[in-house]
Amino acid sequence: MCEREQDILNNRPIGVFDSGVGGLTVAREIMRQLPNERIVYFGDTARVPYGNKSRETIIKFSEQIVRFLQTQQVKAIVVACNSASAYALEVLEKEADVPIIGVIKSGARAAIRATRNGKIGVIATEATIGSGIYNRYIKENDANATVLGKACPLFVPLVEEGLWEDPVTDEIAKRYLTELIDVGIDTLILGCTHYPLIRSTVGRTMGTDVTLVNPAYETAHELKMLSFCWVMRCLYFFICNINILDNKSADAPETFSSGPPGDGTVARQGVSSGPAKAVEALKPSLSGENEAFPERMKGRAACRRSRAVWKPPGAASPCLFLHAFSLSCVLFLLTPPIFVSRLARWADRSFRC
Q: How far apart are CA 99 and CA 9, in angstroms?
């Protein structure tokens, strides 16, 4: 592994950024899949949205945010913004000294697996649709797929103002999505991290026959598997679950914002009234305390919090011994090839003598 990839093993936080509060949906999924990781989240609420800005401007803003996150000593950065992933990801990968992960490739792969008739719809900002990046990634993996993109620029302002369940949002959704319904798509990529916050509205409009793809899950999974061979993944999984690498479980990400519209200062929780409402509404979900967090995940979160401090073997719960037994099994499976190889070399030397 290169030095940048090895960084993912240490206890520094993971950086996540978006143009506003939408990236918190990605942060939530990262917390579900990596419950012992700390997260530093930055929402550029002073300059939201990114979807109507030029490529050069998006790259400039993204570089500024990455530099800020690096001052927070992050070990990896997730670009939880489709517009930034479309235009700035390649530039950031070259400039940053930590792993950079976008959200677009993950969403494209998930859509290819989900589609049944090969007709995939993409709703996103004007910048993401204009880049044609979803079309390109999907075609690279499935040449027979039909990709139909639709820019939905008003969704982001509605989400930022907290109008997730509102008649205005319902009406806008109908106007945007009718075109995709008419062509018969069976899979729809939510190509902006703000859009999962109005997933119920989009789902009602599209109907039950259309699968909604949220790239957040795949992105978190990619982060989880970053830089590990299968052996390291197994060992890391067991070690993390007995909390040797990290003795704390993060209940909510540390959030930063560029301030209310018109204010370019970096201030913690310096969000405008709309984003502030959105952040407050998401916080219970991030900590697993409301209906947006499934019951089965609530139980797991509670279990993880209960064993947040690692205990010595004498005071350990039965789960610790189960993990230790599982780890022993993994090591046993790795031992035979080495043992057989050594035995063969010994036998060869003996017979030669």
A: 12
Establish whether domains 3-103+218-306 and 106-217 are of one fold.
yes
Q: Please report the sign of the dihedral spanned by the C-alpha atoms of residue 282, residue 162, residue 17, residue 81.
A: positive
The answer to whether 274 touches 266, Cβ cutoff 8 Å, is: no
Q: Are 256 and 42 in contact (CB under 8 A)?
A: yes
**pLDDT band of 112, cuts 50, 70, 90:** very high
Selected catalytic residue, list 81, 229, 240, 353: 81
pLDDT at 172: 96
CB count in 10 Å sphere of residue 328: 11
Active site residue 229: no
Domain boundaries, the chain: 3-103+218-306, 106-217, 313-352
Active-site residue (options: 192, 229, 240, 329): 192
What does the chain come to in residues? Answer: 353
Q: What is the mean pLDDT of residues 208-235?
A: 75
Residue 187 bridge partners (DSSP): 120, 211
Residue 267 bridge partners (DSSP): 257
Q: What is the pLDDT of residues 1-45, one digit of tens each?
A: 445 444 555 789 999 999 988 999 999 999 999 988 999 999 999
Question: What kind of fold does domain 106-217 have according to CATH?
Answer: Rossmann fold (3.40.50)
Give the best-scoring range by mean pLDDT among 65-74, 222-231, 277-286: 65-74
Tokens coding 43: 């929402």
- Reply yes or no on whether 192 is catalytic: yes
User: What are the residues whose beta carbons fall under 8 Å from the beta carbon of 119, sequence distance 6 or more?
Assistant: 145, 146, 148, 183, 184, 185, 186, 187
DSSP state of 271: -
CATH 3.40.50.1860 fits 3-103+218-306, yes or no: yes
How far apart CA 120 and CA 124 sit, in angstroms, is: 13
Cβ atoms 205, 173 nearer than 8 A? yes
First to last CA, the chain: 41
Neighbours of 68 (CB within 10 A): 18
